[in-house]
Write a structure and sequence with these properties.
By secondary structure, the chain is mainly beta. The chain is built from two helices and 31 strands. The longest helix has 5 residues. The relative contact order is 0.12.
């Protein structure tokens, strides 16, 4: 897929089957599920709403990342808390042998990543930061063309090898988005502001030759605020939402050759929610929650062809002022190798979610329904069953699978909610849902050509006691057809030309032509038209003496009809037919 940032290692996720996403952001839908059903982790700890107001920005700075792991369908036992997917990004350790610096700039931000040894082969640092830059030119533009937006993020990691069996690292992360509007005196009045912070300490230990332990302590803050002048005439007042989290976790791993692996661990979490109560006074309330979880799984090679994984996650959820919950979430996977090139597999996952976020608008704001499982809002649960076939070619893979997912106690906005008052129990309805479909994925290459494509045929339905007469209705993210694809061709040793894009069925409309929520009669009956998009890019790289230069230029939406909502978050120049040009330069030395 076409990328807007210098190191977008999330782009691979957006081309997988069952994934619906239109930008570099990670606000995607998985197998018919909602945005709040996706768990995002940085070095093992949750980051709430990690996307950005600017849709062209990646969630985290790719220059600072070591890897990104993505799970859907079958989710390993160590993960819990969401129904549809897990995305786990891990920061790199700094280079312990030499100093390396990376400077980058794209249409959305400029950044730098600095790393190197403090004590050679023992202690290293990595510092990375990005900031938006188009806002510096706001004063030169007309009022309707200004960005009125700033963004910056920061990563830091100090890693130390204590001895041959123990290592320790300390990391910090902070990210801030601010959308503002100049007042009559040209002072910047913030309208919407997001901030995420995460600080962690981790100790890694080898116990003998077969057991390893990872123990971590972390503190996180997610805070957002909205100027009430957006929705009513209170320009000097702000609505605040906040989640403070403390984590303590330990995880063990035991490996016996290539035959048997066991993993087990425990985690304790204390969270304090500052909830924005959607009432005439827009007041806030504080809700503390404790959670304890244990997980265990076995990975066994039964014979040369058969491989099994069985595990479970036990969660005890304890809100201070509401009902307690506990659950056991089993996970099971079985793989059978037909021959060297073909693999059959089947899996099941049971998931439970104690965090709810129902969007009132297209952009996350404190006025959304954001709440843990309290006040009679039960945890949401999901059971996912999947089976498939993988065929390995000489340079790639082809995969075909079918899945079924059943969800319970999911939440949604009622129709005509603002005619019912201002209390959440009158605005939110609970129900059940199901999704099922067929996925196809192909990733291969031939000489200078590389290609990927995926196709999903699916249905996602929901039903609610509040609207029994309507029966099963399409979910907001019921997208029967999703086609993603990309082709790249090497042009010489230094250049590459890429074309990519997607096509998907139109989403269900939840607002009418006047941007008002649908009434009962029209609720989830109308769709947007089928959407498609074609992008293209050209990249050039050159090795210099002790340095490397990378250039990439391209056009987003050369041909297509993305919705206004998809384009709304791109803070960039647009040319004919909403085509968005982009450019990236990276210099590593």
């Amino acid at each position: 897929m076409v990328t807007f940032s210098s190191a977008d290692i999330f782009s691979q996720i957006r081309i997988l089957p069952g994934i619906s996403s239109s930008s570099a952001n990670i606000d995607f839908h998985v197998d018919g599920g909602g945005l709040d059903e996706n768990l995002f982790l940085l070095d093992g700890f949750p980051v709430y709403s990690p996307g950005h107001i600017n849709s062209g920005l990646t969630a985290f700075n790719g220059d600072a990342l070591k890897s990104v792991s993505f799970y859907k369908g079958f989710i390993p036992s160590k993960y819990e808390g969401r129904l549809s997917s897990v995305t786990h990004a891990q920061l790199r350790e700094g280079n312990k042998q030499r100093y390396v610096n990376t400077l980058s700039a794209d249409m959305n931000s400029a950044g730098a990543t600095l790393e190197g040894p403090i004590i050679k082969n023992k202690l290293s640092y990595l510092v990375s930061g990005r900031r938006s830059w188009l806002d510096f030119f706001d004063t030169l533009l007309s009022e309707e063309d200004r960005m009125n937006y700033t963004f910056h993020d920061f990563n830091m990691k100090i890693a130390c090898d204590i001895d041959s069996t123990k290592s320790i690292d300390v990391s910090a992360y902070s990210s801030t988005d601010d959308y503002y509007m100049p007042d009559v005196n040209q002072n910047k009045r913030s309208l919407l502001r997001w901030n995420n912070q995460l600080y962690s300490l981790r100790l890694n230990t080898m116990i003998g030759s077969k057991i390893t332990n990872n123990t971590s302590l972390a503190y996180a803050i997610h805070a957002n605020r909205m100027n009430l002048g957006i929705i009513e005439s209170r320009e000097n007042d702000y609505l605040h939402g906040k989640i403070n989290s403390m984590y303590l976790s330990t995880e063990f791993s035991y490996a016996s050759a290539n035959v048997y692996t066991a993993r087990w661990g425990a985690k304790a979490v204390h969270e304090r929610y500052q909830l924005a109560a959607f009432d005439p006074q827009f007041s806030s309330r504080h809700e503390p929650v404790n959670q304890f979880s244990l997980f265990y799984d076995n990975r066994v090679r039964i014979n040369s062809r058969l491989y099994a994984l069985a595990g479970a996650n036990l969660v005890i959820y304890i809100p201070r002022n509401s009902r307690r919950y506990s659950s056991i979430q089993p996970r099971f996977s079985l793989k059978y190798s037909l021959d060297d090139n073909d693999l059959l597999y089947g899996s099941l996952s049971s998931m439970e979610q104690f965090f709810h976020h129902v969007y009132v608008s297209e952009v996350a704001t404190p006025s959304d329904f954001i709440m843990p499982s309290i006040d009679g809002f039960k945890p949401s649960t999901a059971f996912h069953l999947e089976t498939g076939w993988k065929h390995f070619t000489r340079k790639g893979i082809m995969e075909l699978s079918v899945y079924y997912k059943r969800r319970k106690d999911i939440l949604a906005l009622r129709p005509n909610v603002f005619d019912e008052g201002h209390l959440w129990h009158k605005l939110i309805m609970a129900g059940d849902g199901e999704s099922y479909g067929v996925n196809f994925y192909l990733n291969d290459s031939w000489e200078r050509l590389k290609w990927q494509m995926s196709y999903t045929l699916s249905k996602s339905r929901e039903w609610f006691n509040y609207m029994k007469e309507r029966g099963k209705m399409p979910s907001l993210y019921d997208i029967p057809h999703i086609l993603n694809g990309a082709v790249s061709c090497e042009v010489g040793k230094r250049s590459m030309f890429s074309v990519g894009g997607n096509l998907h069925s139109g989403k269900i409309k939840f607002v009418d032509e006047n941007n008002q929520l649908m009434g009962v009669e029209d609720f989830r009956k109308f769709r947007e038209p089928t959407r498609f998009r074609v992008d293209a890019s050209y990249s050039y790289s050159k090795e210099l003496k002790n340095a490397k230069l990378l250039l990439r230029f391209g056009l987003y939406n050369i041909l297509g009809n993305p919705s206004e909502e998809d384009l709304l978050g791109f803070f960039s120049v647009r040319i004919h037919n909403h085509c968005v040009p982009f450019g990236i330069i990276t210099f590593k030395f």
